[in-house]
Structures are given as structure tokens and as C-alpha cells.
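Weekly modeling sync, notes
Attendees: S.R. (lead), two postdocs, one rotation student

Agenda item 3: backlog of single-chain predictions. S.R. asked that every request posted to the team notebook include the full sequence so nobody has to chase files. The rotation student volunteered to paste the first one in as an example of the format we agreed on. Action items at the bottom.

Example entry:
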Amino acid sequence: MNQGGIAYQNKDITSKLLAENFKGKTFRVYGLDIPEVKAVLPTNIPSVRANELRLDNLFELVDGTIALVDYESDYKKEDKVKYLNYLTGIANRYQQEKKVCPMLRMIVIYTGDIERRQVSDEYDIGAVRMTLEPAFLSELDSGGLFRHLKEKVERNEPLDDEELMGFIILPLSYRKKEEKEEKIRESVSLAAQIQDRSQQVFALAGILAFSDKLIDMETANKIRRMIEMTKVGWIIEQEKQEAIARAEAEKRQAARESVIKMIRKNYPTEEIAFIVSSFSQDEIETVRREIAETE
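Predicted structure, as returned to the notebook:
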């Protein structure tokens, strides 16, 4: 892929959001049989030269291994040297931090442009041998997946983790650049309709991060605004629900105090229930017993 001018910026903006929501998710929907994600790690590699592309994603998995993830829209044998640089860079980072380097996985997710028959997952130069774990988005049923997601979103049904992972990678499963760009816009519009706010933010942030080498500045800025609006809206909604809960609690307490006063004045239960309609006769009798027990 060609590195877009906004790619690094996008990753910085979305890394925290993705880190908060990636835990427990897998890459199974992409055809990769690897353990669940435990944590999202920083992708900066000090030993990689400044003119090289930065690693796309770095994950700690629940089995303790580290998954380096890169996305490619074409297959070049020389890219395997780049992957070696990534791997040695990560190993060097652990050494600098005086930590034991865990087992590393080099995962390459190929977009819809590449088919399995075009790719070799081995790189053997004698003293060094590297085995890649490739995934091929060309093998996804892109149209079927999008229709399935659209139906669930339009029915206001929550998405499961695999559906969310499919959602954020969907635009890259198409072959032509124009198709990818169109599907980015359609996916963003669909994500905006997701009712669950945390899922909506994850979908938007995921599309921004995973499609950052294709996405245009206008669409990227639109996604950022939507994320910020969603976050603000979520905060407002939370504050609103908390205020409603407080008001209901205060109203209930005021009604209870009125019930207690009338009980002490020997009002019959039926009359109290008629005056304080928020309390049933059974609830009033319960309060009456409580008062009798304490006095």
C-alpha cells in the first residue's frame, strides 16, 4: 500500500479507543486461528529507519505471544525483509527495556487485491528462516457480510465481536481501489446508525485505523467528528440518565415520607394508596410494619 499522509495521525487518534475495545476479540473472521487479543501495544520500533513504514498493529495475545500485523494490497518478496526489520526491532525494544522477548507472530493481512495462490509464507535465507501467518480478505464474502451487518444494524440489534471485526476490515476486502473507497463511505454511514455507542465508536475508530492508507482526508475528518460527537453524546446521555435516576430516587423518597406521615396519623392503607399513587397497598403495609418494628 502507499502510505497516506494521514496514516500516523489516524493511528495516534484512534489507538486509545481501539486499545480500550480490542480486548477479547479475535481475527477468526479473517481466517486466522490465533488466540484472543489481550492488549494493544505501541507500534513504534526504534531500530526501524525513519523512511520505512511503521508497523500497522501490535497485539499481545492471551497466550503470551506478540502478534505483529501488517496490511498489504500487493505481494512483494522484498517486503519480507521489512517484516524481518519489524521482528528484530520488536526484539530490540524488549532488550532495551531489559525484558525477555516473547514468541513473535508475523501476520500479514492481504486486501482483496491478493489471492492465496500469489503468496509464499516462507522466507528462508539459511541462517534466518521466517514463517508468516497470512490472511486473505479476498476469501471473505464481502457482499454477504455487508448485507448481514446492514440488516442487523437496521434492526437495532447489537453486533457480536466477530461481526465488529468484520465491520472494520470490510472495505479492504474489495479488489479495486474505487470499490474500497466507496465501501469505506458506506461502512462509515452504516456505523453511524449503530445504536450501541461503544460499538459505534469501535466501528468508526476501526475503519479509520485499518483503512488509513486508503481513506481521504475529508472522510477521515468526518469520522473523527462523528467519534467526538458520539463520545460527547454518550457523556450527555449518561449524565441525563443519572439525573433522571436521581430525580426518581428523590421523588420516591418524598413519596415515602408522605406515606410515613399518613401512617402515623392513622390514615387507612386504601386512602394512602389513593393519595400516593406511586405506592401500592402492599408497599404501604410493608412501610407500616417497618414503623411498628422500630417504634
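Discussion: group reviewed the output briefly. The radius of gyration is 28 Å.
Action items: rotation student to repeat for the remaining queue; S.R. to check formatting next week.
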